[in-house]
């Protein structure tokens, strides 16, 4: 099976809407710890089968020092000792948000978050789940393909602006 070419470039067809998605992405990044956010985005993208986002978030996580082992085991996080209880609660929630038509965002997963996150943090985790699922749907429907070179300048710029 060959990869379909790009169907549409939403950033060019609907630039105002796309800009707002990017702005929301920036806000979420200010409120959710970066390494955790990588895991959440990658896990939702695995569930959704979004090749673009799996490649991008794996690349970003590796650049930010996430060990390869934890990324490799992410699909089996429930059986792995590589994740903290806090990460497990967030991963369970991201799966519930991603599969909301099946799970309804269970009370159990929501309550488990409260041991590790404040109400505000839970809200931002939820927004992170909503946002990555939106990105997945945009990338899959448009048949976007990740090009690491396209984002290398962004990663370098982000590192340069992070506090030491």
TrEMBL record:
This is Carboxymuconolactone decarboxylase family protein. Coiled coil: none annotated. Pfam families: CMD (PF02627). Residues 15-96 form the Carboxymuconolactone decarboxylase-like domain. The lineage of its organism: Bacteria, Pseudomonadati, Pseudomonadota, Alphaproteobacteria, Sphingomonadales. Signal peptide: none annotated.
């Amino acid at each position: 099976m060959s990869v379909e070419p790009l169907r549409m470039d939403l950033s060019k067809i609907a630039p105002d809407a796309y800009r707002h998605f990017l702005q929301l992405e920036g806000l979420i990044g200010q409120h959710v710890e970066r390494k955790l956010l990588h895991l959440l985005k990658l896990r939702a993208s695995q569930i959704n089968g979004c090749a673009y986002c799996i490649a991008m978030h794996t690349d970003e996580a590796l650049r930010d020092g996430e060990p390869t082992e934890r990324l490799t085991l992410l699909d089996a996080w429930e059986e792995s000792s590589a994740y903290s209880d806090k990460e497990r609660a967030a991963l369970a929630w991201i799966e519930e948000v991603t599969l909301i038509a099946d799970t309804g965002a269970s009370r159990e997963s929501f309550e488990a978050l409260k041991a590790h996150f404040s109400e505000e943090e839970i809200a931002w985790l939820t927004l992170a789940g909503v946002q990555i699922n939106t990105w997945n749907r945009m990338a899959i429907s448009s048949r976007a393909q990740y090009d690491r070179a396209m984002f290398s300048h962004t990663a370098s710029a982000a590192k340069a602006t992070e506090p030491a």
